[in-house]
Amino acid sequence: MTDHGRAAKLADRIKVLVAKILERGIRDPRLGFVTLTDVRVTGDLQHATIFYTVYGTDEERTSSGIALKRATGRIRSEVGKNLNIRLVPTLEFVHDGLPENAAHLEELLAKAKAQDEVVARERDGKSYAGDENPYELDEED
Could you identify which of 60, 85, 112, 116 might form a hypothetical disulfide with 56, taking C-beta atoms 3.0 to 4.6 angstroms apart as the criterion? Predict the structure, then answer.
């Protein structure tokens, strides 16, 4: 198995374990509705970056980030107990801005569509300034 395949397999396993730990084991009231979006493990299997999103307000996102940072040691310990590897990777929780970016892109696309509709309405009933086909054609019949 390649190192990339092993890292991907370990990342998937870490994602499942951390999700279970967050669901059952962490009793911090600051921890909101956290969803793990991705886990990336370095090629040497020493560091795992866990991307997460939090459903709620900016305040809930901030407090959940603090709760995750505070529980990182305990989560890493639990992950280590369930993985059969010699060295447990260090864990880093990173807020995933993908949903917010996607919402912003949706707003931009809606705005562009509205502008296209305005241009299409202004174009109705208008004609070209010159001929429809301004290119000269050779008439070889």
Answer: 60
